[in-house]
């Protein structure tokens, strides 16, 4: 029983976030939070002994499950009609937008292939960004088997650094049974696509984090705490995922 208050606090926090996202029309994100919060409430329900509290939690769970189901139907309908569009605005100096947070609602269990079009995977911090993105995919619930990267080729003295870094990453991914397909082109579009149909377009591509103030500053290691540049994230869904 001693764990119940902590479990309940966690559930309330997640469900509050779900409602906020829901009210902001960020439906896919809110759905993930509703599902997580409902599971936490169900754990609370199993732990409480008081019958009146059990009735209270059952009612709450039913209410949130009904709303989650409504959202699921709405999202599926928009996806079916090819009309799904959601926009997230990241404010200047905002935190809490690591790749895990931003992409988690869209990297679902069935994802096996990812396409990244970003002309700026060239400088050392941009290469580290792409590495972090790949690490996020490996930690997700899906089993990614192939990552396609289309970027622009660095020129001059830094060209060998880019080639060396991507070659090393390719080998490292191979050891995890993931194939990195690398192509170079001159273009300006930024887009990330998953083979479940989700398409994420970030105004700044993966390079939306600010440089940390120092190597021992908060946010240097944990990107959830790293300040961001102002940018927009547009989310679409297509039943026909194009290939590069």
UniProtKB/TrEMBL annotation:
InterPro entries: MIT_dom, MIT_dom_sf, MIT_domain_contain_protein1, MITD1_C, MITD1_C_sf, MITD1_N
Pfam family, one: MIT_C
Domain MIT: from-to ranges: 4-82
Matches recorded under SUPFAM superfamilies: MIT domain
Record's protein name: MIT, microtubule interacting and transport, domain containing 1
Species of the source: Oncorhynchus kisutch (Coho salmon)
Gene: MITD1
